[in-house]
Amino acid sequence: MKGDAAIIALGSIIHRGIRAYDDEDALPVGARLIIVAVPFEHSAALVERLRARYVDVQLMAWLPALDEKRVSDCVAAGFDAVAMGEAHLDHCVSRWSRDLELAEANATQSEIHHGLVSLITEINSHPELGEVLCTAVLRLSELFSIDRVSVVLFKPGDEIAFVVAEHEESLIDNLVIRVDDYPELRAVMGSHEPLVITDVLGDTLLSGVRSKLEHAKQTPRASVLFPLLHKDEVVGALFLRDSQPLGSVEERLMHMGKLIAAVTSVAIGAALEQDTLLSEHRALRRKKAEADERVAGLQQFSNFFAQANDGIVVTDDDGVIRYANEAAGSILRCEVGELGGKRFVELLNADSHVLARRAIRGDQVGDSYGYIDLLVPVEGEQEIVISAAIRALEQPNGVLVSFRDVTELREIETELRQTKEFLENLIQSSVDAIVAADINGRIILFNRAAEDFLGYSARDVVGKMNVARLYPPGEARDVMRRLRSEAFGGAGRLEMTRKDLVSKHGILVPVNLTASVIYEGEREIATVGIFTDLRELLKMEEKLSQVQRRLKNTERQVVAVELAGATAHELNQPLTSILGYAEMLRRRIPEGDANRKPVDVIYRETDRMAQIVRRIGQITAYETKAYVGSSKILDFGSQDSSVDAEKSGQESLGDTDDESV
Asked: Whole-model pTM above 0.70?
């Protein structure tokens, strides 16, 4: 608490900015100055209770007017000061506030001075550059209570930088970084001043890399950078990042950060100066040794390279390896000492030589970050795949290669790609139409079978057409209703049901439909339907029905023929007997006799019946003809027997009548 915020009152006091309390038990904890309105009962006991409750509290008695007797009583009771009247109270409160601010400022300066002395003492006891950087990182981490503190070093004008220290070594996940991916580093290099970004996602400085930040494994939300200077040039930065946005940063913390950066800059400058002297000394040696010593200029970072999980190799201009860390040997399945003196390209499979040489020349190859996949033959094993970033070094001249083993990752990617291609081929090769849509109805999958029998092209409907257009009006809504119901296969599933689709040309296509809802957790994200074209099936069913009808007619004909044969056989003998007896009667009855004519009719009609029976016995196929009403009878190719019989009967009846008459 500072100033008036640390001042409270007990009793009836009217003063701007001071809150008064009537009950001492209601007083808040943390007050630095308590003003007590006098008279107050048992003042000495009150003073004793207040001093026991508060640490370093100042107690001031207030009298509405000058009263020497009460002043003496207040001093005797143990009050530190006595204010008399409103004007004197204002003066006392203002002076106390100024004294408090001055005391806090002195305490801050004392804290800063103590921290600086402690930092210098610790650095003097461990002067090596790596230990200096670790000390700086730890101090900043303690001061700011921030998630991540790094030391980033680079050379002015270089496109890459090195993360050489972290307050937790496990956080070093990419030792070599591209400066263009960190606009905040560019800003510090240009301004030479500390930079505070309270909210990374809302800062315009980082608008160019915001998409990368949003897709990062751990997106930082706030950053604080302190530049590291050498000969008026920025050679690095103390890089603080936090997962939460920051409010304002206290001036005390910024001041301490600047001091730590200044001390660290001195240590880095000394290391760089020492490196320059060593380089000049090495220049007097042989050419090969000169190349080795130039690359060895990076030895100041070797401790950090050795702890990296990525393999790091430094070569000279001729591509000969002059430095390799332990991780490089582990990844390449060999001892680190065996790598020295070999050409980096010779470690690779012959198929990777051309790509590696292009990267070393500085050609734009690989992904957007410049990483390329290279094959490395390993004795006793199949070749491994490394993902490498190859960057040219200017001072000293050479090439920096950082890489990691991605063999397993590439195998997984290949399996996933093959699985994806298999599923796509399976879907596209299906004879049934498969159509998927997102939860808003927009088509996201349209296979070749759907193209064939609906007439649409996939590129014309995917992402552009609503699936409801494939159904007659209202049918899509009915399908969704059934999908969400328990009555048609369970919620989210639709058992086979008969539906019609509308082709591109407006033709109704009969289909069998099965469908399901695709979920992500409990949330619906898409629907998929499988449609079986029924047009050919319906045509086949119609042809089958026609064949069945013809077969039924054929069976009837066979029955009729068999029945005709049986009937002819059974009727033939009775008719022969009747015909014989009729012939006998004709011979016995002379012509002119009244009984001769009926006998002639019997003989003639019996003979006619015998001829019909003979025809029936000879039937192998038949035709029908119309009969009474809608009935049909067999057509034997003769006159209607019923007509002949009717005529014969009339003639017989006429004769009989005539005879009677």
From this structure: no
